[in-house]
Amino acid sequence: MKYVLVTGGVVSGLGKGVTASSVGLILKACGLRVTTIKIDPYLNTDAGTMSPFEHGEVFVLDDGGEVDLDLGNYERFLDIILTRDNNITTGKIYQSVIDKERRGDYLGQTVQVVPHITDAIQEWIERVAAIPVDGKEGPADVCVVELGGTIGDIESMPFIEALGQFSYRVGVGNFCLIHVSLVPVLSVVGEQKTKPTQHSVRGLRSLGLTPNILACRSTIELDGNVKEKLSRFCHVPMENIITLFDVSNIWHVPLLLRDQNAHEAILKVLNLNGYTREPVLGEWTSRADLCDLLSEPVRIAMVGKYTGLADSYLSVLKALLHASVACHRKLCVDWVPAEDLEVSTADKNLKSYKSAWKLLQGADGILVPGGFGDRGVEGKILAAKYARENRIPYLGICLGMQIAVIEFARSVLGLRNANSTEFDPNTENPCVIFMPEGSKIHMGGTMRLGSRKTYFHGMQSKCAKLYGNRSFIDERHRHRYEVNFNMVQQFEDAGLLFTGKDETGCRMEIVELPEHPYFVGAQFHPEFKSRPGKPSPLLLGLVAAAIGQLDAVLMRSATKTCRRSNGSSHLYEKPKLANGSMDGIYCNGNGLHA
């Protein structure tokens, strides 16, 4: 096993996650099998109980792991399926060591950070690196490990010590350290300053780690004399100093690495020259270039609670981007704070109220993502009502689906006080209720989490068609509340159909309004499985409906059934659009593509 460690210096937020993902992608493009590990030095056991404002979104894995959003980047870039153990936290490590101590595994030793914590970290890395994540048998060739935080942070010291020991133990030729650091450009003189990186590397070396490659974040490409200076003072060869300058979209980052021969530097350090090929990134390059060329916009209003931080909805944004590129449209997201849509806001801040409604009314499509808590709920209900009554394409994810059900109960069924017991425990018409297996005492890891099957009821539904008329699908969940089964018949009699259910038929997974151009709610989170080139069908349906191309996606006249994979996929011919062109959207059984 070869290991690539990615660390960060000077400041946080430099893009270590994107860098680690891009390193993994370019190594995979060279023909290697790649796995990844993210180390987060916080004491939380996992990201599940952390506010999105604190740490961005909580990414959910197939096994139900609630992990750091960087694992979402890894999965999207590398098209792999990770496990909860691919995210190491201080909380997990200390918990495992304390559990061993309580069992008496240390045979009376005094348990200390060195060697017990550091040994546990190394053992965890070696164990998880051997788990296949690409659907093939046997371990990967390379494990990319990202250390969160910044060199010098006190909380990351045990990990730095463990990784220093680890690099010595696995030996030269099996360990490559890439240090991501900042080279700022002072606006006053326009000069690239190397001193922050020099100090960061000096600090890294004082802790027992020496970088093999410098990945320098800057607004512009590094000058030759700047590279020479960094090489001299940081003891890194000039050819191993890579510039990660600002690009139009992050899909260009792996191409930056390739163009600067970063793969050759990594392969040389790992003694893999002669075992690989030149990186094959033709499809990736075409997609990155296409994204830059798109000019005709599609406007999606994102009505949420955490609109002040885009990372709170990172996977939804990426899934929308995948879908819009597949539809050959430039994605324009209008952030609409849900609270600002409420009438109470008009009394306090009329300007914000008018601005929010202007954005909503100018959107081609409306998306209400998941969330928790009652803040902004009434605004989300108003957004769902506006979409339903004005026939604007709508997608509700998790809470967004529950919102659509509540709105329908109030407006169509006439149940004015209909609500979720999450927001009104004493409501007379509880159309959304707490799940019986949930816990109201412990918050972490007690929701319905991970990949679960959804079975379609009625293959003529839009969602069934979007998924290629499969009998069932696997999508990831993260929720404590669900639609009240006792009210389902009422809803369906009034025209709101639950076209996707779990294996028991008692848990509602997908809801649709058949007569609406596109009014869909999903209890699961379809954004977590969206990939570049393989957009999530439900997100693609929203974008296609928003630009008037949904019929092209759903077209059956030019289709033919092809061989099935596990009895669940079809192959569709690429349909012509109304203008006669072949540009547009088609399905190849693995997702919908441009």
CA-atom Rg in angstroms: 25 Å
**What is the global morphology?**
globular
Helix count, DSSP H or I runs of 4 or more residues: 20
Q: Walk across the major sheet and give the strand order.
A: 13-12-14-15-23-22-21-18-19
Low-confidence runs of at least 5 consecutive residues: 560-594
Distance between the termini: 37 Å
Percent helix, as a range, is 25-40%
Q: Strand content of the residues, in percent?
A: 15-25%
Average pLDDT reading = 90
Strand tally:
25
Sheet with most strands: 9 strands, mixed
Main structural class: alpha/beta
Summarize the structure in words.
The protein has 594 residues and is an alpha/beta fold. The protein has 20 helices and 25 strands. The protein has a nine-stranded mixed β-sheet with strand order 13-12-14-15-23-22-21-18-19, with helices on both faces. A seven-stranded parallel β-sheet has the order 5-2-6-1-7-10-11, with helices on both faces. It has a three-stranded mixed β-sheet with strand order 16-17-20, covered by helices on one side. It is globular. The two termini are 37 Å apart. 49% of the residues are buried.
Overview in brief:
With 594 residues, the protein is α/β, with parallel strands linked by helices. The protein has 20 helices and 25 strands. Helix 5 (113-129) crosses helix 6.
Key structural traits:
594 residues; 20% strand; 20 helices; seven-stranded parallel beta sheet; disordered C terminus; nine-stranded mixed beta sheet
Q: Mind sketching the topology for me?
A:
Layout: E1 2-8, H1 16-29, E2 34-40, H2 52-55, E3 59-60, E4 66-67, H3 70-78, E5 87-89, H4 90-103, H5 113-129, E6 142-147, H6 157-170, E7 175-182, E8 185-186, E9 191-192, H7 195-206, E10 213-218, H8 224-234, E11 241-245, H9 253-259, H10 262-269, H11 282-293, E12 297-304, H12 314-326, E13 330-337, H13 343-348, H14 350-361, E14 365-368, H15 377-389, E15 394-397, H16 399-411, E16 419-420, E17 430-434, E18 448-456, H17 462-466, E19 472-479, E20 481-483, H18 488-493, E21 497-501, E22 508-512, E23 519-522, H19 537-546, H20 550-554, E24 586-587, E25 592-593
Parallel strand pairs: 1-6, 1-7, 2-5, 2-6, 7-10, 10-11, 12-13, 12-14, 14-15, 15-23, 16-17
Antiparallel strand pairs: 3-4, 8-9, 17-20, 18-19, 18-21, 21-22, 22-23, 24-25
Helix pairs in contact: 1-3, 1-9, 4-5, 5-6, 12-19, 15-16
